[in-house]
């Protein structure tokens, strides 16, 4: 007889009572049916605001020191993780400077994206503050592109 790596099954020591009847729960008919649709009309499409795209703004953001650790010279424009989804990009006005990789250090941008610095809840509170602070700094330095001045001014006033 060939041996296997499995242990043999344990034999039942007591015989089952054939008169014993198992109780099976009963379910009311129709309990698991999907609800009837309220309307046959298709759902109305929701218009989504087009995200702002500006390479000049992103480059201006990258000139600032890191918003997290303050290291100058290694910054990248980091987008906030709110307002994006599948097939949707975040608005460039939600960018803030975060340092990239440098010799001997991974950088805050990568750590932030991997969740190594803050929890999601803390990050959701900090990112809008960093983005608004970035807009204010760029406004004061005169680095906001002309095409975005009206939008940036409105967002700065709204944040006050």
Overview of the molecule:
The protein is mainly alpha-helical and 160 residues long. The chain has a domain at 55-159. The chain is 30% helix and 5% strand. It is built from four helices and two strands, in the order αββααα. Strands 1-2 form a two-stranded antiparallel sheet. α3 (120-141) crosses α4.
Q: How far apart are the termini?
A: 84 Å
- Structural Rg: 30 Å
User: What spatial form do the alpha-carbon principal axes imply?
Assistant: elongated
H/E element sequence: HEEHHH
DSSP strand tally: 2
Biggest sheet descriptor:
2 strands, antiparallel
Strand content: 5-15%
Stretches where pLDDT is under 50 for at least 5 consecutive residues are none
Q: Characterize the quaternary organization of these chains.
A: single chain
Q: Going across the major beta sheet, what is the strand order?
A: 1-2
SS summary, helix count? 4
Task: Give the helix proportion (percent range).
Answer: 25-40%
Give the mean pLDDT: 82
Which class do the helix and strand fractions yield?
A: mainly alpha
Layout of secondary structure:
Elements lengths: L54 H8 L12 E4 L17 E4 L8 H7 L5 H22 L7 H11 L1
Antiparallel strand pairs: 1-2
Keywords:
single chain; 160 residues; mainly alpha; two-stranded antiparallel sheet; 4 helices; 2 strands; 5% strand; elongated
In summary, what is this structure?
The protein has 160 residues and is mainly alpha-helical.
């Amino acid at each position: 007889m060939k041996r296997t790596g499995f242990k043999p099954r344990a034999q039942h020591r007591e015989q089952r009572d054939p008169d014993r009847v198992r109780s099976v729960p009963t379910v009311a008919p129709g309990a698991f049916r999907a609800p009837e649709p309220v309307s046959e009309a298709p759902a109305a499409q929701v218009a989504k605001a087009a995200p702002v795209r500006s390479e000049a703004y992103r480059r201006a953001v990258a000139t600032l020191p890191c918003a997290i650790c303050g290291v100058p010279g290694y910054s990248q424009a980091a987008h906030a993780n709110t307002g994006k989804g599948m097939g949707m990009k975040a608005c460039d006005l939600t960018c803030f400077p975060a340092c990239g990789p440098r010799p001997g250090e991974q950088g805050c941008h990568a750590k932030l994206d991997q969740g190594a610095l803050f929890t999601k809840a803390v990050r959701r509170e900090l990112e809008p503050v960093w983005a608004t602070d970035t807009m204010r700094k760029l406004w004061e330095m005169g680095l906001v592109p002309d095409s975005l001045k009206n939008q940036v001014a409105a967002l700065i006033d709204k944040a006050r």
